[in-house]
Amino acid sequence: MSKLLAIFSREWRSLIVSPIAAVCVAMFLLVTGYLFYTIVIAASVQTRMMLRMQQMAPQLNINEMILTPSLRNFSVILLLIVPILTMRSIAEEKKQKTSELLLTSPVTVTQIILGKYFAVLALYGVMLGLTLYMPLLLARFGTIAWWPVLSGYLGLFLVGAVFLAVGLLASALTENQMIAAITSFSLLIVMWLLGWAGAATADSQVGPLLMSLSILEHLNNFLAGLIDTKDVVYLLGVIAVSLFLAHRVVESQRWR
Amino acid sequence: MIEVDQLTKRYGSLTAIDAVTFRVEAGEVLAFLGPNGAGKTTTMRILAGALPATSGHARVAGYDIDESPLEVKQRIGYLPETLPLYPEMTVTEYLRYVARIKGVGRRGLRPAIDQAVERCALGQVRGRLIGNLSRGYRQRVGLAQALIHDPPVLILDEPTGGLDPKQIIEIRELIKTLAGAHTVILSTHILPEATAICQRVIIIHQGRVMAVDTPERLATQLRGSAQVRVALRRPTAALQAAIAEVPGVLAVSPAAPEGAAHDGEPVVWLIDCGRDSDVREAVARLIVGADGGLVELSATAMSLEEVFLQLTTDAPDRAARADGGSPDGHAGHPTEHAPAQPSQPSPQPLPQSSKDAG
Question: Three-state secondary structure along B48-91?
Fold first, then answer.
């Protein structure tokens, strides 16, 4: 346990001193901030129009009009940012031959993988936590339902955790950071597109299957304020499978 | 302490090491000697647990490296060929991290770091980023990393690589102080280093162990015949013939081609003689008696360099022979091989061998 913690804290330190992570977090906050801003503007325009047309005010709902679409958009931004966050994780150790130290130390591959995963997950948690200013800001000017917001954040955290696990796997496959980034990006895009393919073939039997395989489809329930066991189990399952594969890859590379 | 039995590693069709077998006793310092690509690093990586062997077994401190790898790793300090350093960490941070993953307890961290820093003379650079250190300091941080958890076994792949002469001497002194309390395996291609700090030397070439012995014994074993070098101003053919008649002398040959020695330069003859006979006194009396103008007379001993070159340059022949025998027999081969030497016109092994090597 203390060895896992040692690997975690080294990884965490090297993440926060690296300019890559700083740029990633900054870009994420910038882009999500911009998206949030446009959604708020669009919502206020829409609100004014609705009031002028003397429609019923109860249809105006801050959660539905602003927060849910914002969080859904964030998940797409994550798709682009996460591969950059995870690309160096294992690839760089191999490139710099520091993996030699890990492999000849009395630590298990599980400790290595988990230590690295939790470090990047912690950074992601901080990054996502920093966007909480959005609901807090809205809460100052209106009433928002907090539970759907929190379940939406939980969903987004889990989806990001899946992306990170896939990114870690991609990083284990190569010693080149660019290749790691491109691999995880491609894997994540495929996972995203599965949902589109599912929607296109919704009437056949494959459609629902593809839909349920797509990561982002599982976000919808969370955003609606619904924590469904099958979504949680699915997302945690994908994380476990990805980390297990990363474990096998690191283990098997010793044999070459 | 370390038992290696028939260790073999193949990469596809390439055999990196072939049935390597040796033992290291506790407290011993042993050097791996061999040209680049001989299999030194491969053997060390397998022992350190960075690489699994294709076949064969190895035990470190009584634990099998395949069956209980964590127990073995706990007892090994390994300095790889490429230093495993994180440039974004300071020396102290790095050593603390290594100590923690090596399982040093929370209370033992500070003493362990202080001791490693002191042993490797890193006091001045403790707080500096590793990325900003010179090559010599990095090498010492690498060494400190291997020593941090005070392991009984140290595996050091070229510990003095990239250091200046003063630092090399310091590291050698450090390794000497480690002997006894620690078992050390190191690899080097600097031969005097092996002679200076090691009790035993393993010469490895093309993945095979060519010889295992003390540096001194290797040198005498390989020298099938002793050689005496004489320089004289007035050589005559009669004198040469007379020397050849001295009991124990096998052959007398000029070191330089005929006619190269006019204008007062002394002519050098090389006198081959049996290993056990000392002919220097008789030869000196003969030359002085014949007024040969003796200016120099010395016995030439074979250095480890020559042993090394001789063992590694005629390897194809040797490897072919080794196929039949057991690996333990390798150490005996130098003795059978060497007597062929005196029949050749120029028996001095060094220039001949280096020509072949090039």
Answer: HCCCCCCEEEEEECCEECCCCHHHHHHCEEEECCCCCCCCCCEH
**What gap in Å lies between CA A223 and CA A31, rounded to an integer?**
20
CA distance B117 to B115: 5
Nearest to residue B341, comparing CAs of B294, B316, B306, B297?
Answer: B306
Partner-chain contact A254 B82, CB within 8 Å: no
Which of the four pLDDT bands, split at 50, 70 and 90, describes residue B246? confident
From A93, A107, A253, select the one nearest B51 (Cα to Cα): A253
B51 touches chain A (CB under 8 A): yes
Q: In this complex, is the C-beta atom of A220 within 8 Å of any C-beta atom belonging to chain B?
A: no
Distance in Å, alpha carbon of A95 to nearest chain B alpha carbon: 10
How many Å lie between the alpha carbon of A13 and the closest alpha carbon of chain B?
9
Q: What is the mean pLDDT of residues B161-171?
A: 82
pLDDT > 90? residue A154: yes
Say if residue B16 is exposed, middle or buried (CB neighbours under 10 Å; 0-12, 13-18, 19+): buried
- With pLDDT > 90 as the criterion, what percentage of chain A qualifies? 58
Task: Flag if B83 and A104 touch (Cβ within 8 Å).
Answer: no
CA dist B154 and B143 (Å) reads: 10
> For tokens 């994180």, what's the residue?
B86
For the stretch B188-245, pLDDT in tens is 877 777 778 888 888 888 888 888 888 777 766 655 556 788 888 888 888 888 888 8
Averaged pLDDT, A210-237: 88
Q: Across residues B329-343, what is the average pLDDT?
A: 39
Asked if B80's CB is within 8 angstroms of A14's CB, the reply is no
Predicted complex ipTM exceeds 0.85: yes
Residues from chain B that touch A4, judged by Cβ atoms under 8 A, are: none
Sign of CA pseudo-dihedral A184, A189, A192, A197: negative
Interface of A with B in 8-37 (CB under 8 A): 9-10, 13-14, 17-18
B210 touches chain A (CB under 8 A): no
The predicted structure's pLDDT at residue A15: 92
Tokens 């591959």: give the residue.
A109
